[in-house]
Amino acid sequence: MEQNNSLPPFQGLASPQGAMTPGMPIFSPMMPYGSGLTPQPVTNTNSLSLLEEQQRQQQQQQQASAQQAGVPGGLGQTPQLYHSQTVTTTTLPGNTPLYTATPLTPMTPITPATPASESSGIVPQLQNIVSTVNLGCKLDLKTIALRARNAEYNPKRFAAVIMRIREPRTTALIFSSGKMVCTGAKSEEQSRLAARKYARVVQKLGFPAKFLDFKIQNMVGSCDVKFPIRLEGLVLTHQQFSSYEPELFPGLIYRMIKPRIVLLIFVSGKVVLTGAKVRGEIYEAFENIYPILKGFRKTT
Amino acid sequence: MAYQLYRNTTLGNSLQESLDELIQTQQITPQLALQVLLQFDKAINTALANRVRNRVNFKGSLNTYRFCDNVWTFVLNDVEFREVTDLVKVDKVKIVACDGKKTAFETDVV
Predict the structure, then answer these.
(1) Chain A contacts of B65, Cβ < 8 Å?
(2) Could you give the CA distance from residue B2 to residue B45 in angstroms, rounded to a whole number?
(3) Rounded to two decimals, what is the model's pTM?
(4) Tell me, what's the ipTM?
(5) C-alpha–C-alpha distance, residues B102 and A189, integer Å
(6) How confident is the model at residue B11 (pLDDT cuts 50, 70, 90)?
(7) A154 to chain B: which residues are within 8 Å by CB?
(8) Given this model, what pLDDT does residue B101 score?
(9) What is the end-to-end Cα distance of chain B in Å, rounded?
(10) How far apart are CA B52 and CA A289, in angstroms?
């Protein structure tokens, strides 16, 4: 993955200055998300999604070549990078081609960054994705509960069928209106795949299920800064963003304004980030909080 | 009205077969057979609730589950049924379970 290390032209907030884990995409607020790597997704045996993946790969390659066209002359060596990378990169945990589908902005290498800032070198791992989709038809929940496997339906307690699948390991809430919530996936692509699998289950039971308005509603990530943090200090200086009640909850709740992400920061140095609609918000929020946390490192 | 859950057991099926034979040979009416089965339901439910004391543990891997109309249906694989005295292993077992708590419609009239 030597291609990654030859990306110094990108001076984003999150730009790697050599200290980057090989194979990690560079996420900077100024950069289109498709920059750097366009890793191929893990191949799966699901024929429906295989077709999707092929279409997506085609899209990526089109976009990569479109990106090259849109790149200003200043970024000399990078055009080749895109070319080779669309062909040769291997799967990375949690990286998603869906991400590259955002409209491309011309790449401006000028991202105002604090002169001495380096990327943290830590990438938050996605732990949970919540998404919704509309199957587009009314459903008879009792039929679904009786005929589908791994389904629970207790209308007295909750007006939806709770169904689970093992791959990707997710849970879906299926409502009689035809709307469905899919939770538990570890990546955007897995969430979409899982939702499609549930839709296929419903379809096989005889309902005219469609796959309308799939949308990721929430993404949760977590990481470890590897040093203890003085939460008291943090709440004193950032009181307009933080709320820390150790008697109520041992973590500090930091509500970042831009991007709009809620972070749970713990004394151990573990950080949970939630409220994101796209992966980049998680990464951006973490890059924003990391220097602040470094400033509140416990020294004893 | 007790659970009719136990009609599909070795005991319940034998009873149903015997009743069917009697109906075939015109010795009893279908209505009587139905009453017999209802009485069987009450009897087996109270017997299991009051007269059974032993305990069996089982452990296996869950293949599928279902919960609908307050009835749980499980299919387990590679299950070991363990009682103090002995051990039985099976490849596949289907468990149908109804709520043990007394519900509104159950009556104690014998």
Answers:
(1) 149-150, 152
(2) 7
(3) 0.67
(4) 0.83
(5) 46
(6) very high
(7) 67, 70
(8) 78
(9) 10
(10) 62
